[in-house]
From TrEMBL:
Coiled-coil positions: none
Domain of life: Bacteria
Reactions that this protein is recorded to catalyse: 3',5'-cyclic CMP + H2O = CMP + H(+); 3',5'-cyclic UMP + H2O = UMP + H(+)
UniProt-listed SUPFAM superfamilies: Metallo-hydrolase/oxidoreductase
Function (record text): Counteracts the endogenous Pycsar antiviral defense system. Phosphodiesterase that enables metal-dependent hydrolysis of host cyclic nucleotide Pycsar defense signals such as cCMP and cUMP.
Pfam families: Lactamase_B_2
Protein name according to UniProt: MBL fold metallo-hydrolase
Residue span, Metallo-beta-lactamase domain: 38-224
């Protein structure tokens, strides 16, 4: 049976933030801190194979924590450091092991990655996810561009297999109607929500807060939702009164993807 594992559930800075002494960061520094969060990373695994989504600067830590020594397939949402900072380490693993990694992303994301790391092509095969999508581990995957506020754009992915459909949309805000369309009819939505209620001016923001995300859920109505990309504003020890079927992601959390196959 296919499953989704949350390896990294944090925002761009992770938790704890090195400079911060707030209660959440302090708790995250303890050896058993439930609020310790690495940069966004998930694994999709099943009988037909496996792949990761994103490869940020905590990629190595995440791999070590789950005892995984190599991954062949990675799907990237966008070329911001917290989502691609681990690519050099992945490429180095490929070099040492004599294996080639398979990197999947929309062409403009691949172009940006190669401008930052022009040598990656020596160790990775790059695959553009175009209008027809791609297929990984038996999942048919569709990509679409989403508004990422002051940070420009990201991509979200809708994945379908058998009778199960889910989406991964880690970095977005204020989606217009056409960008919400692929979020309808989902069994599971993984959505980025950095704060519970972010007070910063909208022009400076880049990710939904929880209050805004709940309004979005009332529109697209997924069967189940998991909020990820969490900042130090969110404390997993608190009860935020989330609706039934909505939860915050935690490091190591696993969700079954019941495809019916």
């Amino acid at each position: 049976m296919d499953q989704l594992e949350f390896i990294g559930t944090g925002d761009a800075m992770g938790v704890p933030r090195v400079y911060c002494d707030c209660e959440v960061c302090a708790e995250a520094r303890s050896t058993s801190g439930v609020n310790r969060r690495y940069r966004a990373l998930v694994a999709v695994e099943g009988d037909e194979g496996s792949f990761l989504i994103d490869c940020g600067p905590d990629w190595r830590t995440g791999m070590e924590r789950r005892g995984q020594r190599f991954t062949e397939q990675i799907l990237v949402t966008h070329a911001h450091f917290d989502h691609i900072g681990g690519l050099p380490e992945w490429a180095d693993a490929c070099r040492w092991l004599g294996r080639r990694g398979q990197l999947h992303a929309p062409q403009e994301v691949l172009d940006t990655i190669l401008r930052q790391y022009p040598w990656l092509g020596g160790h990775l095969d790059l695959h553009a996810v175009g209008s027809e999508g791609t297929r990984l581990a038996g999942w048919q995957i569709r990509a679409w561009k989403v508004f990422h506020g002051k940070n420009g754009f990201s991509y979200a992915y809708r994945l379908e297999k058998g009778c199960f459909a889910w989406a991964y949309c880690s970095d977005s805000i204020a989606l217009p109607e056409e960008q919400k369309e692929p979020l309808h009819g989902l069994d599971l939505l993984v959505l980025g929500t950095s704060f519970y209620h972010e007070l910063a001016e909208f022009a400076t923001r880049s990710v939904y807060d929880v209050k805004e995300a709940l309004e979005l859920l009332n529109e697209v109505r997924p069967t189940r939702t998991v909020f990820t990309h969490l900042s130090h504003d969110l404390d997993l020890r608190r009860d935020y009164g989330l609706p039934e079927g909505v939860a915050f992601a935690a490091t190591g959390m696993r969700v079954l993807l019941q495809t019916g196959e």
